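Objective 1.3, modelling of assemblies. Example input:
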Amino acid sequence: MSPAAPSNQKARTILQAARKVFLEHGFSAATTDMIQQQAGVSKSTVYAHYPTKEKLFIAVVEAECESFLSGMQRIEFQPNGVEALLHQLANTYLDIVLSPVALAQYRVLVGEAPKFPELAHRFYQAGPRAMIRQATELLSRAAEAGELDFGGLSAETAATAFANLVRSELQQHYLLHPEARPSRAQIEQWAETCVFIFLRAFAAKR
Amino acid sequence: MSPAAPSNQKARTILQAARKVFLEHGFSAATTDMIQQQAGVSKSTVYAHYPTKEKLFIAVVEAECESFLSGMQRIEFQPNGVEALLHQLANTYLDIVLSPVALAQYRVLVGEAPKFPELAHRFYQAGPRAMIRQATELLSRAAEAGELDFGGLSAETAATAFANLVRSELQQHYLLHPEARPSRAQIEQWAETCVFIFLRAFAAKR
DNA sequence: AACATATCGAACCGATAGGTACAGTTCGAT
DNA sequence: ATCGAACTGTACCTATCGGTTCGATATGTT
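Predicted structure (tokens):
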């Protein structure tokens, strides 16, 4: 089964348990006992793998950031027309941002940002910034193809606006209403609205 | 000085101290000792006025919500032209949202939303929703005056889009970078960008 | 068989948390 | 002069926190 195995298996188990507990309670309110119990592991084992609660928290968040980043880069858009591209972007982004895990992580990281500034920055880069980087590239391709006209704004500014327009309203709502669950219909309707507005502002006149 | 006075003075002192401590450390990490010390008051006095730490936290947040609401309603816009109106709206909103106090409160409330759902909802209504309500009214007046054309969207949807476009990018950045401070120039530039985009989408063609 | 490693379980440590108890003090009102 | 409410200071209670220690046990390797 397991004991004397050179187990980094246990390390992963602990990390998963810690993730659940931290995302559920935040850093301060989470206790190492809860994590140990959730992992089904003895307390000594936890501290054999991670020296302190803080380091364990950092390990959890960094792992989550990496998975975010690799998940974003795997997304590929084959644009047949700008409108379809924008729809796909908006829906994909909202699916990620409004997932229970992402909302929980956002809550915790924002709440603990004063205590873990570097960590908050890493999340900022791995999450929102990565999205904007990708959107910038796709939108500037569409502009090169003559389908969009930013009217003097940079592609990055337009992409920033679009990403924030898509994200912020629903994200804020569900950040502050943790027991409510977003519906697919609501997501799609808001995505539609965002695409409509963006195209009204930036669709090239032909 | 004070003692046997029927003092709600002390209650206010304690509330102020609690506000500072809670906004600085969040709920879980804040201690009643810190609050007592900050207020320059004995521990017994704190518990004479507020039965538990939780109730004290709730009192702090509700007071802050009320002050938000009354502060919002006091704002008056005398628009001479839509563009000026949008500029004023954007700058005013950003000034509020990016103030250190508002950022700290947002961090705490988002972080503790799972533990205090009703409180988070009250904040949602007193903050973001109040802003959107006001923006909706002003924008629909501008639409009635023939200066805006929402192209089938409701005034509330347009106002929601504008408010979120204005707020989200910078707010997210400073939520996750607590030690950085927004500059007036940055605020005004982003406000300008938002007005530009909004007008490109919704300015009535004459 | 023997050893190293990983784990367990539970006791244990010092610190600190939220909250209470209580004896004494200061004031305003009667 | 007295009374009672508000307040202070401090000691105290109990629970729990993060973290350590240690003996027992079970395994894989040699």
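The two ends of chain A are 68 Å apart (CA to CA).
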